[in-house]
Amino acid sequence: MTTIRIIGTGSALPRKIVTNDDLSKIVDTNDEWISSRTGIRRRCLAEEGETTVELGIQAARRALENAKVTAQEIQMIIVATCSSETNFPSVGCQIQAGLNANNAVAYDISAACSGFLFALNTAQAYARTGNYQKILIVGTETLSKVIDWEDRSSCVLFGDGAGACVVEASPIGMMNYVQHSDGSQGDVLSCYTSTMRTPVISKGMSMKPLHMEGQAVFKFAVKTVPGCISQVLEGAQVSKDRVKYFILHQANQRIIHSVAKRLNVPKESFPMNLDRIGNTSAASIPILLDELNSQGMLEPGDYLVLSGFGAGLTWAATLLEW
Ligand code: ACO
């Protein structure tokens, strides 16, 4: 049966690096608190011109180059984001215009930190119809625009960035996926604006849109993620020992270590980059995939599990062969 295979990856990060010490000048925090509770040491934050769209275009160009595919060959662009500068046009359409990918249909998916996986699963469903051969998937975020920079318990967690993958219809590649939503718990992680244009870190911003109940999110993640990873493996009758890397949404090192422990898998099988880039929501999984790919750490035949979790609430896992 037709599935999809990832044939190219790319990513883009803003130029400005903000360390935990830098944040301690803005809110009452310190490097020791942030790094011991989250594993995060620094993040990249967008400045003027580094928008959700622009970062997405950069990541997409690199993924196309890596896949050796032209923008005109792309038939569909699916963008996962929850930090668009516009309600419309979609980020997908703006990225299409930036790439001159004029044979593609383009649109957005909103599933916060699970968005990239929901997009990947959607791409597979379209490829199975036989109507789409080459699809570009982009996760891109500038959440720094919607963070409450006076709330030390949430502003220290996030970073900006974009990651992208080119996928093509193939007999091997994605083997199984599971995806879930629980809207009844939406209030534990919410954001009541979607169209802020101010891309700069600025204390004293009058809007306080991002609200997070940290401990509730933590409990949700450590409870649901091991379950959905087990579900995706069992559904494909694949042993966890066959999996080379578990590529999880990069929210918090403690969440990732807890998932590793519950699955009884060595934590070395869970690569991380959150120490350097923080939580980039829908961009975190494709950025990490691109790092592993560009460092030559992925070989044909490797089995990977990707798993995302976040606002909605939403969570998902995908099993694929590289
Ligand atoms: N610096 C210093 N102190 C802080 C900070 C900070 N940045 N933030 C909170 N504190 C203080 C609190 O005010 C509190 O002080 P008090 O005891 O005097 O009241 C104390 O630290 C403990 O606060 P808690 O909220 O209980 O801290 P906790 O150990 O739960 O850690 C954290 C908070 C890191 C947010 C944790 O709950 C967590 O990681 N949750 C998961 C959230 C997450 O990953 N969100 C990402 C977005 S969602 C997603 O992507 C899935």
Task: Please characterize this protein's 3D structure.
The chain is of the alpha/beta class and 322 residues long. It has one domain (1-322): Peroxisomal Thiolase, Chain A, domain 1, CATH 3.40.47. It is 32% helix and 25% strand. It has helices at residues 20-23, 31-38, 52-67, 91-99, 115-128, 152-155, 214-236, 253-263, 274-277, 284-294, and strands spanning 3-12, 16-19, 42-45, 76-80, 105-109, 134-141, 161-170, 174-181, 189-191, 210-212, 243-248, 303-310, 314-321. Strand 12 (303-310) and strand 13 (314-321) form a beta hairpin. Helix 3 (52-67) packs across helix 4. It binds acetyl coenzyme *A. Acetyl coenzyme *A is lined by residues 29, 33-34, 37-38, 113, 152-153, 156-157, 189, 212, 214-215, 217-218, 221, 251-252, 279, 309-310.
Write the SSE topology.
Blueprint: E1 3-12, E2 16-19, H1 20-23, H2 31-38, E3 42-45, H3 52-67, E4 76-80, H4 91-99, E5 105-109, H5 115-128, E6 134-141, H6 152-155, E7 161-170, E8 174-181, E9 189-191, E10 210-212, H7 214-236, E11 243-248, H8 253-263, H9 274-277, H10 284-294, E12 303-310, E13 314-321
Parallel strand pairs: 4-5, 4-6, 11-12
Antiparallel strand pairs: 1-7, 2-3, 6-7, 8-13, 9-10, 12-13
The protein binds acetyl coenzyme *A (ACO).
Residues 29, 33-34, 37-38, 113, 152-153, 156-157, 189, 212, 214-215, 217-218, 221, 251-252, 279, 309-310 line the site of acetyl coenzyme *A.
